[in-house]
Amino acid sequence: MPNPLVPFVDPRFTERLRRGRTWVGVLSLVVGAFALIGTAATAVLASLRPGLITSGLVGAVLVAFGLMEGLAYLGVGIWVLVTRRGTTSAPIITAVVLSSIGVALGLFDVLTEALSGRSLQVWALVVVAILLGRSIRVLRMKPSPAQFPPPTRAG
After folding, report:
1. First and final CA of the chain: distance in angstroms?
2. Residue 26: its pLDDT value, please?
3. Distance separating alpha carbons of residues 12 and 25, to the nearest angstrom
């Protein structure tokens, strides 16, 4: 017999929550993949033409942070997709924190590009901002009670 103190959740809510978590997971995987590809391209360019991007030690630190960023996004994306049918909010909170850091660093990068006269590369910032918005939207979802209780098993 179901517990009468626990309200029944509308199945449409659970479907919307699962769909939102799927979006957050896939976007995290996409951002992680592009971060790793960008890091690999930076490492290749730095090795082909030393001094083109940055000095050796600074370039190594940038590549290391790029790898950590890409792997973090991939890890969060996998975590969100694995738990998308659950109700835990920890993966979504992690996605919000990681994408907030990504937006802040992306804004700093766009600002330095604008001040140095280089062409602005805002596509990554836009994708991370979309990820942040989706994550916050999923995190703010509140369950709505079902209009009718699900059928009970006759015993």
Report:
1. 10
2. 96
3. 20
